[in-house]
Write a structure and sequence with these properties.
- There is one protein chain.
- The chain is an alpha/beta fold.
- The protein has a single domain, classed as Metallo-beta-lactamase, Chain A (4-Layer Sandwich), CATH 3.60.15.
- About 30% of the residues lie in helices and about 30% in strands.
- It contains eight helices and 15 strands.
- It has helices at about 40-50, 65-70, 70-80, 90-95, 95-105, 175-185, 205-210, 210-220; strands spanning about 5, 5-15, 20-25, 30-35, 55-60, 80-85, 115, 125, 130-135, 145-150, 150-155, 160, 160-165, 190-195, 200.
- Helix 1 packs across helix 3.
- The longest helix has 12 residues, at about 175-185.
């Protein structure tokens, strides 16, 4: 994606887990929010430079290592604030080490303590960019999605034709499905879904074609 409703929106696939990092910037103010800087901080900073924006806020969808390992160096380079849901604080502090070791990622700047915490209904804002926080627990207890202007940054809650895994500590399948059905499906069908992995989608496509959603709705409406 390039420009959506006067915002610049660009994504970058980073790390061995092919995680989607997103930068949402204002062409007018040149300030930006970075969602889920998971790895390859130099590439993330180069993308921001190419967009002509400065990252002022780092907003994480959750605390798994593949989404958080570049938070430290990006913050160190930009001075950006870092926010996440408090329920994933333990992952920020300790959940990334095993993943980094298994994947061979060298971590020069461990994930820092958050500058603040996000909660359902909060609005994150830098000059020219606003994102609403939707609590969507299930993949982790602190999983959130970010929404504004027809765009949903769904983290690892909702993927194109799939959902985030729930078999890791803190995961809960029923909770994740309720998050999707109660928080995400009410959004307009033309809402663009920009997930933490794989390709983008829309809410309408997921409503009609996502097998997890279809099965869940059939079961709960029976």
């Amino acid at each position: 994606m390039e420009v959506v409703n006067e915002l610049q929106v660009r994504g970058l696939v980073v790390g061995v887990f092919a995680e989607n990092c997103w930068i949402i910037g204002s062409p007018q103010t040149h300030e930006a929010i970075c969602i889920d800087p998971g790895d390859e901080p130099d590439e993330i900073l180069a993308l921001a430079k190419d967009m002509g924006v400065t990252i002022k806020l780092i907003a994480n969808s959750h605390g798994h290592g593949d989404h958080i390992l570049a938070v430290g160096p990006v913050q160190n380079a930009t001075g950006a604030r870092f926010v996440i849901h408090e329920s994933d604080l333990e992952l920020v502090h300790h959940g990334w080490q095993g993943m980094a070791e298994r994947s061979g990622v060298k971590v020069d700047f461990p994930p820092p303590d958050p500058s603040g915490y996000v909660h359902d209904g909060d609005v994150l804002e830098v000059a020219g960019v606003r994102l609403q926080v939707l609590e969507t627990p299930g993949h982790t207890q602190g999983s959130v999605s970010y929404y504004d202007q027809g765009m949903l940054f769904s983290g690892d809650t909702l993927f194109r034709g799939s959902i985030g895994r729930t078999d890791m500590p803190g995961g809960n399948f029923e909770q994740e499905m309720r998050s999707i059905v109660e928080k995400l499906l009410p959004l307009p069908d033309d809402t663009i879904v920009l997930p933490g992995h794989m390709d983008q989608s829309t809410i309408g496509f997921e409503r009609q074609h996502n097998p997890f959603i279809i099965e869940w709705l059939q079961k709960t409406r029976a």
